[in-house]
Q: What sequence folds into this?
């Protein structure tokens, strides 16, 4: 590969022209007319990102039914220099999966590859196609008394292909890892149409290079994931959930260490949220009650999951809280007295984004820090945000156990939403500068897509960026697969 | 990259000439004469693999003291087409880390990069250089009340760089994963000398492609790992170890499911061994006693580790064994009554390789199967081996929880060792054919190196092999880094 193609991997391919009608017809013939959507009304669900940050147009939405059809589509695209934008459940948050405004990008929807091919409880594995909705994998695992742990807000509509392409995180990462950690084997179609069939269900396999991680988290820019073998886990027999009030994030971090020492990987959630978000929830969620008797500066949602008994789960949680009280870390805490109350606690957490909408515009950041630095980060970023926009309302919340904070800032009361949101990038610059200085990531679990593409070179070294571009140029020499995303 | 270079990535570089004296001098100048070993006696420890399968010669052993020196060495090697063989603790088992007989391969020993750069208990992370001996990482983690779980026989002399380059497995994989799963960040020097500094300690980071997995498990063929940020875990407060007698591997597999359901990831070992190996141990290990009152066909070593109390650990183990007895899976079992006895149980497991030596020659296989297929594999492979070499003594043992079986075959009593070992490849062919047919791996945890290089194309598809070669050719265009290993 020439050094110039390293410097400008898509120079030869950009900009892509709007495909001619006969070319569209050739693509459509691969999937059949019924599954080639050209009517704008049929296309609509594939063109708009749910946060309304991105809306695009496309000449055709292709809905292949087999891996072979996906391969044919990509082969034709590489031969003709046609841009392909892969899409799963269209729940992404960074603009990776929706076409741009040029009208040159064909949408490749994996939704019809929705078969669960094989369930292997004895081997704790499940083989699924890319278009299977996450919730359906949970159901299939549950049916054989197993757990597939990937848990996130969009699980009712997101598909596993998208989850893997974006290396999704969610609330169970502290115990089970990110999406990439849940994969045993992967089937991928390269931009040039070759099928890499790595659908192995082995726990140990050092026969050659492990290439699946190249595609996991690459946001559909290096290949199209068509199927995967996923890890299953024993289904916890009992859970204990508590809401805990603490004075500071530093106290929360100390409690985290206590909890991990007691529970190890039975600590299945350790989420943090500020008082302000609890107030938002009480104000906007019908029937939502203050979880603790008196208001606390910060709230933690702590979950313990065990394979034995309710008693064992409760004993571990009580030991954690007891030590937390003794150490002066826990001000107040309440254990879920019923399944209903446990669900209410989780609802409080899951509605965090929803209730922010009710309070007006929000400028959002999906950042991560070395876990130990989260308190120091919040001590710097909150005042920095407040001094940039007086009376703005920072509502940082998220996965303390992973160092992943959704550093969101709600508009000042009564302020003009548009005026506030107009300062999005200005606020990003302030927050991301602190993150970078502390060795954190500006794209923790939502990815880069188009939203953060221009920020990436600022947080990755020259040699790292060069290697990413060389990988892209090697796998996608024509630059036809999701160009302008990530790189 | 041209398609011909894909087909023959090293065509331009192979065979490498023996480096001239002035070139050796240039390499030596980078590290300083003191650390450029040219005396054969000084070189010896770097030239012989401990199983005596490989012995090579080298013009010089280079012992750099910094990442910058490693980068200079590789840059010069790429410029001059000089072959470099990276080496850690020289405990590898597949010939990846020792030079060949040509005298053209320079050994790059990472042993002097042995600093523990940073220990972060609050963030459960530790930053180490490639040459740190695995046991020293255990000690450093222990000093801050944490666990680094990677556990294997060679841990007293192997180095973390080699562990990561070979994606080492070991006995703790069932609970903590393989070596690659324990890495947060990686520092790698590319064959052309660029340094990829990815020493981040983030639990969630989707800022661009995850490139560390490209190098993890690549056996020093794609880059030289110089440092890593590793995950630490809570140190278990209590352990319970049991030896369990079962009738068949199928019963063992059913018990594994029971154990995982009860203990989840607190099940920290589930090892299987046949009666014959117990007899070898009793015969050859002074003071080793039969662990159960009556001989059993198969033995399991089961370990539970918890963060709470001895009572909790014992309660989980007793629940597992109780259910196992009720289900008719467990014939006999004994719990370690003391730390001494626990160590004896583990000694039984750790001496498996040693006691085989005492019985003569062994033909070895490091294979893995989908976990559920291990019993079926053993039912086929044991008679197949016995019919190929009458009276040979199969002693398959290993990590049932990972589907990883060391399918070793000890020579017939009184047979000639050399005659027996001469049939190594013949036996491999029989065993590996069954493995391949069942979707297993012929290189589970020891890697490919030179030992299995010629077998790899037989177990990986054309497109997979082609992609591996393209990655190799892209990262190492001159083919100077560990050529003839893996690919």
A:
């Amino acid at each position: 590969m020439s050094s110039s193609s390293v410097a400008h991997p898509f120079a030869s391919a950009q900009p892509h022209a709007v495909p001619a009608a006969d070319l569209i017809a050739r693509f459509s013939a691969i999937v059949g007319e019924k599954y080639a959507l050209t009517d704008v009304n049929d296309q609509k669900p594939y063109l708009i990102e749910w946060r309304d940050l991105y809306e695009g147009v496309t000449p055709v939405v292709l809905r292949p039914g087999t891996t072979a059809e996906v391969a044919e589509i990509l082969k034709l695209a590489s031969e003709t220099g046609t841009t392909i934008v892969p899409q799963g459940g269209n729940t992404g948050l960074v603009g990776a999966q929706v076409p741009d405004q040029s009208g040159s990008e064909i949408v490749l929807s994996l939704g019809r590859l929705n078969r669960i091919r094989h369930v292997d409880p004895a081997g704790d594995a499940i083989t699924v196609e890319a278009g299977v909705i996450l919730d359906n994998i949970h159901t299939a695992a549950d049916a054989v008394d197993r757990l597939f742990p990937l848990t996130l807000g969009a699980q009712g509509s997101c598909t596993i292909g998208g989850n893997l392409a974006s290396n999704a995180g969610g609330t169970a990462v502290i115990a089970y890892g990110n999406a990439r950690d849940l994969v045993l084997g992967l089937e991928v179609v390269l931009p040039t149409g070759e099928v890499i069939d790595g659908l192995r269900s082995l726990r140990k396999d050092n026969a050659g290079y492990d290439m699946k991680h190249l595609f996991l988290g690459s946001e559909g820019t290096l290949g199209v994931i068509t199927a995967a073998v996923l890890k299953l886990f024993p289904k916890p027999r009992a859970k204990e959930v508590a809401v805990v009030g603490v004075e500071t994030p530093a106290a929360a971090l100390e409690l985290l260490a206590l909890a991990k020492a007691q529970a190890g990987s039975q600590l299945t959630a350790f989420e943090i949220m500020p008082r302000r978000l609890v107030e938002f929830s009480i104000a906007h969620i019908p029937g939502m009650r203050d979880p603790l008797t008196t208001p606390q500066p910060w709230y933690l949602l702590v979950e313990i999951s065990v394979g034995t008994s309710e008693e064992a789960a409760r004993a571990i949680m009580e030991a954690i809280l007891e030590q937390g009280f003794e150490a002066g870390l826990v001000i107040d805490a309440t254990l879920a007295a019923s399944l209903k109350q446990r669900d209410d606690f989780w609802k409080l957490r899951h509605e965090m984004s929803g209730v922010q909408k009710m309070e007006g515009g929000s400028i959002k950041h999906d950042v991560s820090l070395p876990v130990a630095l989260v308190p120091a980060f919040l001590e710097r970023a909150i005042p920095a945000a407040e001094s940039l926009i007086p009376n703005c309302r920072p509502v940082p919340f998220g996965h303390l156990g992973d160092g992943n904070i959704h550093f969101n800032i709600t508009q000042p009361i009564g302020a003009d939403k548009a005026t506030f949101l107009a300062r999005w990038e200005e606020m990003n610059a302030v927050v991301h500068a602190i993150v970078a200085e502390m060795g954190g990531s500006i794209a923790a679990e939502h990815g880069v897509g188009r939203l953060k593409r221009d920020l990436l070179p600022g947080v990755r070294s020259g040699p790292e960026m060069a290697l990413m571009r060389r990988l892209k140029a090697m796998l996608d020499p024509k630059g036809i697969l999701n160009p302008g995303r990530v790189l």
The two ends of chain B are 17 Å apart (CA to CA). The first helix of chain B runs from residue 3 to 7. Chain B touches chain A through 99 residues (CB under 8 Å).
